[in-house]
Amino acid sequence: MSEKMKSFSLYCPFCKDVLTFQLNFEELKKRMTGGLTGIQLPEHGHPAHGLEVYIDTEGFIRGAYPIIDQDTTKYDSYQNYYITDATSEITPEQGNAVGVKVLPFTITIDDGPQKNYNEEVYFPEIYDNLKLDKRVKSQPVPAEAFLKAFEDAPKNKPIIVLVVSKRYSEGYNNAIQALKILKVEQPNLAKNIHIIDTKTTGPFMKLMMNEILQMDEEGKSTEEILAHLKWSSESHVSYIYVDSLNALRKSERVGRVTTFFGNLLGLKPVIIENDNNNGDLKAFKTVRSKEQSIQEIAKDIKNRFEGKELVGVIFYGIVIDDAIRMQEVLNLNMGIELKNFTTDFIGTGVAIHLSYDLLGISLYPKK
After folding, report:
1. Which region holds residue 168: left if phi is over 0, alpha if psi is between -120 and 50, else beta?
2. Phi, psi at residue 229, to the nearest 5°?
3. 75-105+140-233 has which fold?
4. What is the CATH number of domain 236-365?
5. In the chain, which stretches have pLDDT less than 50?
């Protein structure tokens, strides 16, 4: 390989294939604006889809967005109608392709205008502004948007709605408010709506949606799908290692004490989500390095889920090698089978409220 050529690898967020490609990185840097440049990869997979990939000045991939033929819609083939909010990191285009209605939340940068996520503003721009220490805030999907989505949904199907944890956002409460309005105006339609507090966000929320779409395709009943969602939302656990404490100091999700002692002692936190089945975030361990965090996380997973088959997703913020290292430790050192695991980017909700520089894993035991 020429010295000017750089090799890249990423997991396709649509089909989960591992893609490897080479680019002349020096030429690529000349095209960058705002610290990023975008390239389009050729179509692959089934249904055929391309990828728009964003790369930063350090040669890290900052986002990958599927480019999908909008004629590949699957809404009509399912027994249920599915709705989620954009904190699931399912884009509107991807949603149309797999048969999911995606409702955007909004983003503001400093005092700028509100923009719909994954429609008017995308993760690479958000990442760039977080890196510049700008104030990036999100507003949840409003009740009016949920109400319109409910009213526009098919009248002859159960409607399953996956929303971000109510511990993180008012999105769940807004969905419930919309349902209350509908119970008065269209009570028969309201009876068919099932709103699920996923007790999570981002990569694991996307995994939950992908799982139930597969269950629907396999002919599982609505009751079986709802039972699975109850199990995965309540029994999952997430571990998140935060390498940069800067974002945590601004976060309302994690106590300021964690960041204070972290800065004082040179320690960094590992945070655990849903440890008590209520969707809360709390401090799990403090460590001195990313490698130590991986070892501590793997050890707790082994102790907590000994002998159980696990399903989950490993997610990373900057370097895909971190996710690969976690896979190695879980599989080789701890003997944890990874056949039911995927790998993904962290997503905007996690980046805003915790950090863009982190490594994590969400998982649950099969029944």
Report:
1. alpha
2. -65, -40
3. Rossmann fold (3.40.50)
4. 3.30.1180.10
5. 1, 71-72, 257
Tens of pLDDT along 259-291? 555 555 668 889 999 998 888 888 898 899 999
- pLDDT tens digits, residue range 58-85? 888 877 777 766 544 566 889 999 999 9
From the DSSP assignment, how many helices (H) and strands (E) are in the chain? 13, 18
Q: Are strands 81-85 and 159-163 parallel, antiparallel or unpaired?
A: parallel
Report d(CA 331, CA 234) in Å as an integer. Answer: 25
Report the distance separating Cα 328 and Cα 61, nearest Å.
Answer: 21
Q: Report the candidate in 322, 349, 242, 252 with the shortest Cα–Cα distance to residue 286.
A: 242
Instruction: Identify the H or E element spanning 169.
Output: none
Q: Name the residue with tokens 């700008």.
A: 134
pTM for this structure?
A: 0.83
Domain ranges in the chain with CATH number 3.30.1180.10: 236-365
